[in-house]
Amino acid sequence: MRYRTALIFSLILSGATLSQETQKPFILEHMFHEHKIDFVNSTVYQQIDGYAAVYNSSHIFFDLKFTPDDEIFLNASITFGNGITKETEKEGYSISTTADDLEDYLKDINDTGRDYLLELFYQKSIGNFTFIGGLIDSTAFIDANRYANDEHLQFLNCAFVNNPIAALPSYNPGVYIHYQITGSTGISGVYMQNKPDKGNVGIVEIEYETGNIGIRPYYFYVFGGEELKGFGLSGDYSFGNKGVFLRIGNSNTDQDYFISGGFEISNIFKDDRVGLGYGYIHGKNETDDVHVSEAYYSYSLNEHITLSLDIQYMKEVKKDFIYGSRLYLSF
Question: What's the pLDDT score for residue 135?
């Protein structure tokens, strides 16, 4: 799994065109299989302050290509359990210890009455342009990062998967357009519904990506709802078997700015990875600051099975350590 993930990102950063525009490693990995239907599964255990829970999350992907430039993509998911989310919410934490889509969320997604179906879109490529329309996830295209973007293979905490104070909606109707200006520079735009909140969201991102560096600044604005706007930046740099990442963000909410950073080291022994990250959200108008730290150790038994140990520390209205483990299967 580690080798495939590295190959995926080397192709992305070299400007190669992949079948799907999505930048999520656990989704991109399926394109190296010969079959068109793929399955991934995560079983996660977490414990906080004497309370423990397990959840199991599965995704099924389907990719149907009509021509080299036309295809349909489907992503459906079912999860059993909600982990420790309800416990952390009861304790007053605003950040979730997992970015997985849990059982309660996958029923009546975004208050639409739709269950389990996350993404279903049509993708068309014309020269340097890519057009996507349908049920989309803005975080599959915006705010990507090589070392902090995948709750199945990297960090679990929401603060290290995407910018937690930005309007980056998922699994709503919308459109995505990308234009590759040069081999290393592109520009993307997303416009989609903001459910369960009101209005629609517009996002523009510029991507500069080479063999070892990625810089992706973006701006977001909510139209027709409560005025919400801001910017973000996701960056990463790799050298040898090591890599570092940085995210920053600003919004006009009571959580007015965010910063996170960390590193990953791979192949310390063999087929393993260590990741460490720290994130901070600054609150204003009597909103509490948030501090999040996470470290994980991940070992791939083979191309299908990866085991991880995880520890998090969160401080908001109170402070706690969260201990966890993850079993990831990919077929």
Answer: 97
